Amino acid sequence: MSKIPxxxxxxxxxxxxVKDKPHLLDDSRMWYVLTAGLIxxxxxxxxxxxxxxxxxxxxxxxxxxxxxxxxRVLSGARIGAEEKPSAQAGTLLVNMLAVRLWGFKDIxxxxxxxxxxxxxxxxxxxxxxxxxxxxxxxxxxxIASVYLSAPLIAKYGNVKEQFMIAFMIMGVCCFVFYRLTGxxxxxxxxxxxxxxGPMFKQTGLSAIAATxxxxxxxxxxxxxxxxxxxxxxxxxxxxxxxxxxxxLGWYASMGSPVGFWPYxxxxxxxxxxxSSSEAAASEPQASQAEPEATVVAKPASGLVxxxxxxxxxxxxxxxxxxxxxxxxxxxxxxYRLLILPILLALAAIVARLIVLVRCRGKAKKPxxxxxxxxxxxxxxxxxxxxxxxxxxxxxxxxQYYLPLNxxxxxxxxxxxxxxxxxxxxxxxxxxxxxVGLLSMVVMMVLSWHIFFGVRKSPHSGAVYTDRxxxxxxxxxxxxxxxxxxxxxxxxxxQYVGDYIRAHSEPTDSIYVxxxxxxxxxxxxxxxxxxxxxxxxxxxxxxxxxAERVQEILSGFEKDxxxxxxxxxxxxxxxxxxxxxxxxxxxxTGQNQxxxxxxxxxxxxAYDKSWTETLRQNWGSDEAARYEALAPLRRYIxxxxxxxxxxxxxxxxxxxxxxxxxxxxxxPNSFGVQVVFVRT
Length: 679
What we know:
By secondary structure, this protein is mainly alpha-helical. Helix content is 57%, strand content 5%. The protein is built from 27 helices and 9 strands. The chain has helices at 22-55, 62-74, 89-102, 107-132, 134-148, 151-154, 160-181, 184-194, 197-200, 205-220, 226-253, 264-267, 276-280, 310-317, 321-337, 339-361, 376-389, 402-425, 429-446, 448-452, 478-486, 492-502, 518-523, 542-558, 600-618, 620-628, 630-639; strands at residues 509-513, 526-527, 563-566, 584-586, 593-595, 640-642, 648-652, 658-662, 674-678. The strands form 3 sheets. A 5-stranded mixed beta sheet has the order 2-1-3-9-6. A two-stranded antiparallel ribbon has the order 4-5. The chain has a two-stranded antiparallel ribbon with strand order 7-8. The longest helix is centred in the first third of the chain and has 34 residues, at 22-55. The N and C termini lie far apart (114 Å). Mean pLDDT is 84; it is low at 1-25, 273-300 and 645-672.
């Protein structure tokens, strides 16, 4: 009897006739290659453009402050004593790593930001593909790449919100993979990653809160036991402590006040050893402004304000009713420009509710383990908190709106996933093809301004006009940013830094008044004062500003700076005249303004007159702030002279106060910067 030949085992995931038709396999591979290439191009081009813009945009504000503090700490300065950074622990550590690798230059943090963001987008794609399919993952990553790189909100690079977003994305993705695989080490990674968010900015709590609430929600819905929920929270906490404990130990080892420690905004006020001024050191920093000390001169008005951090509370208190209304309108204007990710997120939430209602109507529950929609509450809470946290501060700078785009992109993946499922299962595919094409057109229309600019400033609501022709123009799109970078512009603060670097020794110290710390980086020089920059002079209580002045002067006594720079920069709330270090005044019978001569009687008369003007127009607090600055003004007028003062000519700002401009065609053009050199 002949033996019956054994049947070969079928190839899993392949056609049984692959050997007969090998071109099918080749076609499948080619399809995957083409799909991957298309996704890489559509997501990579805006990402690459964003990085090109960042690498070619010098950062004089926040990034300069982070770099400066990193250099100071690496040089041996103790946090809270010789150096009082505006950066929180995560931002400071990233910049310290960048300075170690690339030196005291702004390129390093931008490279690290690029690496973290690229890793986050990869995490996002893999997670969304696992949950909602390839189409949803592709669209989600493309939207995230476009909006996280958009010049409208992305700024210069080395932005703490961008670092925070990268770690929030990776943390949420690790948490989702734990829920999908059950492997405990994913949960450890989630805790170790999510803990970084608030170490860049306090609003990074949104992702931590979303994951924590999701874990607690499972036993409430009777999907899992409370024992499992507790075990999950313990594992996440353990992962977080692995990261947090060494950093806390580092701060403690150098004797830093508790207010500078990571997460001090949570536990600092509860500790008897933590003063209010210490707690303020870790408050969030705004663009072109910085955290402030919190010795409060007057109680906060309003029940809600009492529970806000000092930095935010003082910002609200500095505004009148009209300015507060404008702050709310500003948020709405930015929301309108970010309508595409916002609509995607809202539509996804509504779609999920519809699915749940239909399941209840059919007397059945959606599957808990196979249904990707079970993660919609996680993503929805994350997105909602990102949206809500924008309202906390009245400053609402453009980078505040970055986080909502990441969470919205992932949340919108659920909506695209539903579409893909309908497209695959509905016999009448043609109508779904039409729906898909129309949706793509709508998305392009809603994001048109992201690429081609806006006519009105979302921050002020004013119409943009060309500075030369005074004709309306568009700004802040990919197109306008490309043209700006191509023109290779030079900035006034760079001239100042170059001049100081050329006319001083590396051991010389300097001081920059105002929030343009990039001058330190450009000059490659350090500050003579522990707090090297100031951007909250109009919101600080006068008593606190007086303390700051004494701290600055104490630093000057130990190490007199070779140069002092008055940036004459406008600061929040932007309707106040500059608190200048050397007054500029017009004299009766003269057609020009000039620096006030260091004559005691003239100075006294000027101070009296100007103080009364400030009191009448901007209130007693602003007048008191000008008086608090008097010792620093006198010190500079007695010990310094204006650099090349004969090369400057004067004009007036929109507030009717003089601002100095360098004469055209002369070297070392400082623009609005005023440089003083020690006599």
